[in-house]
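Box S1 | Example of a co-folding query
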Amino acid sequence: MPTTIETERLLMRPLNTNDVDALYKLDSDPLVMKYLGNRPVSNLDDVNFYLKNILKQYEQYGIGRWAVIEKSTGEMIGWAGLKFMNEVTNGHVDFYDVGYRFRPEFWGKGYATEATNAWIGYAKNQLNVHTLYASAHTENIASQNVLKKCGFIQKSEYQFEMYGENLACYWLELELV
Ligand SMILES: CC(C)(COP(=O)(O)OP(=O)(O)OC[C@H]1O[C@@H](n2cnc3c(N)ncnc32)[C@H](O)[C@@H]1OP(=O)(O)O)[C@@H](O)C(=O)NCCC(=O)NCCS
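Box S1 (continued) | Returned holo structure for coenzyme A
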């Protein structure tokens, strides 16, 4: 696994246990969690559990969601990256999903598009992935815009189960070959 990925305005690096407070700030914000099951975290245990799963992905698959730092301020604005999906999702299994999550004060600057394009390049050039996948809630227009700007094509609508509830999501794909 590389140690950093740099874009014009962002620096991305693997998350680590020192990022717990920054992740709490991100995931406790109701605006951030609006289309992600609407359950902002309310304690550090939840964040630690979630971080542990990301660190496990690094070990198992050599990749996972990474911290995203705004270069001009050095602030961690959220995360972005690939997740290897080993459970059946919309009829697919063992594939790479690209995703992102940023604090609202950093939205609308093109950062998600910039980070996603870097991860598309990584998936293609370093992992030789042929098709990259992504999901977005049907009402999450900003996320759908990011994916479409990056070339993803909306293929279907499905129900993603989260916290025992079904979220209506679009399924998007990007051919990399
Ligand atoms: C989704 C998210 C990462 C987008 O980040 P971002 O850095 O603001 O994205 P970008 O600036 O690269 O692009 C967003 C695009 O959507 C547009 N957009 C933003 N909010 C919108 C809205 N409510 N309705 C329509 N379009 C909207 C922007 O104008 C932009 O498109 P444009 O460049 O054509 O103008 C950010 O909103 C976020 O972190 N949300 C919370 C977590 C989340 O939902 N993650 C995705 C789960 S699928």
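The two ends are 22 Å apart (CA to CA). The pocket of coenzyme A is lined by residues 32, 35-36, 100-102, 107-113, 136, 140-143, 145-146 (CB under 6 Å).
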